[in-house]
Amino acid sequence: MGMKSHHRSDRILRIPQETLSHLLLSGQVVLRPLLDSRNQGNKPQRSERTTMKLNTFTATSLASVLMLGGLSSAIAPAQANPSVQLIAQATAARAFVTVEQNHPTSGTARIVTENGQRYLEFDRRFSTVSGPDVKVILHRNSTLPVKLDEADYITLASLKGFSGAQRYAIPNSVNLDNFQAVGIWCKKFNVTFGYASL
User: Fold this and answer.
1) What is the pTM of this model?
2) How large is the angle between the packed helices 46-74 and 17-25, nearest 10 degrees?
3) In this predicted model, what pLDDT tens digit does every residue of 4-63 receive, in sequence order?
């Protein structure tokens, strides 16, 4: 008597990682056996049930690994992303004081250090009156007069704007221990608009 050969067609269900992770997290993972069309409507045999259990266990384990991998990526330290900047140090924000009454200056200033680079930072409420050739300076004293002596300050940069948040890189060669205030100063007329202690 001839033996009947049985041919079983295994079908592999491929699910994208994003879809599988979403279904797992939402509790909607439902694994159903994909049987050959000839077996539809028939009760699976013992060997088939065993295979189904193994496939279910394998798929569930794989889903767990994918989910944990996604969570690990989500909680990775921010410093792993080079585009993320971390404030390592920041001084207390100090308010600007108006020196020349026709040039009222307000807002705050502080020194921040990000990834080893120091910056002088003005907050978004910073405001001063427009003028020609206005500079941002670092002064050796904690208060500034209207007229400045050239030996008492260094020029950090030209003022970027007369209002709003802004920042200025401080060169590594500048020793901040030698300076006690930042000033908004008109070079053309040697007039200090305002200052903030550092």
Assistant:
1) 0.58
2) 90
3) 444 444 555 555 555 555 544 444 444 444 344 444 455 545 545 544 444 454 445 444
Residue type, 188: K
DSSP-derived secondary structure for 124-182: TT-B----TTEEEEEESSSS--SS--GGGEEEEEE-S-SBS-EEEEEPTT--GGG--EE
Q: Of 102, 9, 25, which is closest to residue 63 (Cα–Cα)?
A: 25
Q: Are 192 and 92 in contact (CB under 8 A)?
A: no
168-193 pLDDT per residue, tens: 999 999 999 999 999 999 999 999 99
CA pair distance 45, 38, nearest whole angstrom: 13
Q: Could you identify the residue written with the tokens 């009947």?
A: 4
Residue 41, burial from CB neighbour count under 10 angstroms (0-12, 13-18, 19+): exposed
Strands (E), the chain: 87-90, 94-95, 97-98, 108-114, 117-122, 134-139, 153-158, 166-170, 181-186, 191-197
The one-letter amino acid code at 12 reads I
Assess contact for 196 and 182: CB atoms under 8 A: yes
CA distances, 73 to each of 25, 59, 64, 116, 184 (Å): 16, 21, 14, 26, 45
